[in-house]
Specification:
Two copies of one chain form a homodimer.
Chain A: E1 2-8, H1 21-31, E2 35-42, H2 46-59, E3 62-66, H3 77-85, E4 89-91, H4 93-105, E5 119-121, E6 125-127, E7 136-143, E8 146-153, H5 157-175, E9 180-189, H6 193-204, E10 211-217, E11 220-229, H7 232-250, E12 254-256, H8 262-272, E13 277-281, H9 287-293, E14 302-308, H10 311-318, H11 322-328, H12 333-347, E15 351-357, E16 375-381, E17 386-392, H13 397-418
Parallel strand pairs in A: 1-2, 1-3, 3-8, 13-14, 13-15
Antiparallel strand pairs in A: 4-5, 6-7, 7-8, 9-11, 9-12, 10-11, 15-16, 16-17
Helix pairs in contact in A: 1-5, 2-3, 6-7, 8-13
């Protein structure tokens, strides 16, 4: 069975706003063994929306609409679905009573427009929405000779997500053939995609029943494996077999064998060894600290650090000698070393990491003017020795800052790995 | 004229990857006065892709494909477009020669697969791709009684974007009726969307020739205005008229009247007054510093600061007394004040900002256990007085951290604004 997702809303046809619900819906449908074959984004226009609904009915078995269930004139999904199916809408007294109750509870008079939220496709079941006034609806019907399942969901993610998970998913699971999907993700950092593919494709190509997707971006390669079988155990064992063989092939290049992020992995490694970390960031300006502290309970291993954006702050918070900066420039292996050692000593952490570099655009003052944009030095101090790494990155400011932070995390991970 | 954008690629039908080219393409098409009415995402499947192409030809005047022009078996856009149009592909000798030359220049033998990149829709013009091996193509034709413009573009953004901007846009501008689009964006922070709409809709509703879109998210409201006229001057004057009236209505709530970000605005305000800033961040862990340093030349006003994640670092880098943390908790107005004053004094900056709060999940130790998750205190010290602000935010860790940083920036902006 294949599905089409139709996102309704004119704001998603501007240069400013994306449809994001479809990523969640795709994952949920995949869980049920349903493949998403088409996604359509269409504006709040009855002709266009009806056209999209008609097209979807002709090419997909399950059609999921998101958005357009509100009370305004622009909310046309119910009308379009009815028109495409050639059926009528009837005002449902149960939904209507619920709407009046909802407004009464908040001591507001219901605006007359809202009654259209009680319109139900003939034969559809109501999908109760715990987080908004618009209920969803689902119609299991036959068009021509084919079974079609049409699902209407509200657009706001905080309404759509719980509604799908708690109401739609169990309902679909009860009427679809039992197919269970297993997933696994392996993650690697800072390794070329072509390199990963050359080494892993001879393995994953042997598994025609496991779908493998390689995604690259932001200094990371993800290998996604999915398999659908009649039981979860069977699906999981296929996925695990290929993933385990690829883990054995790629060895320590893989930082995550169950999908954890690079930040989570380094925090976990440090926590297990009772190590703590502090950072001194220049060109990344807090990005590394921000990534680490985005993880809950990061304080078990991460103590904090300093954003040493100016020469003065490098001296103040990490005891870098002024003469060193004047002689070698702030973007130098010497200053990277002094920053890592200085922040470690100052904060009393077991490990100190530093990042100093040129993110551009424009030229740097003093000695740093001699270095190219994209030159970054990392320092990693543990009290016995200090490792230094030079990076030469190509890209804009955002790119250089992100890759510098990614390199710092991977540098830390590999160093921790080797010192086991 | 209305357009449909078709993004081809199975990875965009997984839960992991979005189509992003369409935002850029929408902006570019809008510039030419063309409205995007449909976006379709379809996998690397000839039947599905041909179906999508056929549907688009029936409902749009301009059809833009992105992706599926590579050399592999999965690259099927040329074949699908030809099938939908009922025309054939012919191998173009000029493209073929270019392909051989391209590979020869890199001293690689061209793999036999690559010859299919020379296949051109009958009657199409070649769109030279300066950044990749797959050229684009454009066909200006008639299907039934209707003029249809079909454009095939490579998927990688760094190929698609320059190709559209440098080649397709001038070509389309020369064949489409002259319509010029003007845009303007006003931005506001931390104000409810309903409030903005109630105050601004009586104004923008008077301008039926200016399209107004309100977007809300991440603690910000954006008002986008666009107008299309036969000259840019005429379009701009309409957009400016409504934007200026709304600026007069919303006054200081608007932080940006030409689209600048909140970070850019506060940095600019400080630079103009020769003020400098340092930060002491606890729960946001570097996020505020990271946002400020993402802006080029932020060092003209931002000196850096400290990520004071543990009590010890609050003492070490911002001179907060231990007894104060024990007595009031780290998440307290007292500690927010001490952090802001301490980081300002330590770094010698004109202004010091602090953020301390509970981002969750889980409960905090000591006195902080008494505070709810989402409680955040901001401090802003200028050497004469220190302002404190209490926030009570509802959401997950990412949400609380983002809104705390957004509130800190807006707090700073409003304080600078009032002290003019």
């Amino acid at each position: 069975m294949i599905a089409e997702i139709i996102a309704a809303g004119s704001e998603m046809l501007t240069p400013h706003r994306q449809d994001t619900n479809s990523l969640f819906l795709t994952e949920q449908l995949n869980d049920l063994g349903v493949e998403v074959a088409f996604k359509t984004i269409v504006g709040d226009n009855l002709t266009h929306l009806t056209n999209a609904a008609r097209t979807a009915l002709a090419r997909a078995d399950i059609i999921v609409f998101s958005g357009g269930l509100g009370p305004t004139e622009d909310d046309l999904t119910r009308e379009a679905a009815a028109a495409a199916l050639g059926i009528s809408l009837r005002r449902d007294p149960e939904i209507l009573a619920g709407l009046y109750k909802r407004f009464a509870a908040r001591q507001i008079t219901m605006p007359p427009n809202n009654v259209k939220q009680a319109d139900l496709l003939e034969g559809a079941v109501i999908l109760a929405n715990a987080n908004g006034s618009a209920p969803g609806q689902m119609l299991d019907t036959v068009v021509g000779k084919y079974r079609k399942i049409v699902i209407l969901l509200p657009g706001p993610p905080r309404e759509l997500k719980p509604l799908f998970q708690d109401v739609v998913k169990p309902l679909l699971a009860s009427i679809l053939p039992p197919r269970r999907l297993a997933r696994r993700m392996l993650r690697m950092a800072l390794i070329p995609e072509s390199h990963v593919d050359a080494r892993t494709s001879p393995i994953y190509n042997q598994y025609s029943d496991v779908q493998t997707t390689i995604l690259a971006g932001h200094g990371e390669i993800q290998l996604h494996f999915t398999a659908a079988k009649s039981t979860l155990e069977e699906a999981q064992s296929r996925v695990d077999e290929v993933a385990n063989r690829i883990e054995a092939e790629m060895e320590e290049a893989i930082f995550s064998s169950q999908g954890e992020s690079l930040e989570e992995v380094v925090l976990m490694m440090m926590e297990m060894r009772h190590l703590t970390l502090s950072v001194a960031e220049s060109c990344t300006g807090g990005l590394l600290a921000q990534r680490l502290t985005a993880i809950p309970n990061s304080s078990r291993a991460f103590v904090g650090g300093a954003v040493v954006y100016t020469p003065e702050l490098k001296m103040l918070f990490a005891d870098v000698p002024r003469e060193m900066i004047e002689l070698h420039g702030a973007v130098s292996p010497e200053v990277a070393r002094a920053l890592a050692e200085g922040i470690r000593t100052r904060t009393g952490a077991s490990l100190g990491i530093s990042i100093t570099g040129l993110a551009g655009p424009g030229t740097a003052p003093g000695k740093d003017a001699e270095r190219p944009i994209g030159r970054v030095y990392l320092g990693l101090a543990d009290g016995r020795e200090t490792l230094i790494k030079e990076l030469n990155l190509n890209g804009d400011r955002d790119y250089i800052r992100w890759w510098a932070s990614q390199n710092a995390l991977e540098f830390l991970r590999q160093t921790l790995h080797q010192s086991r």
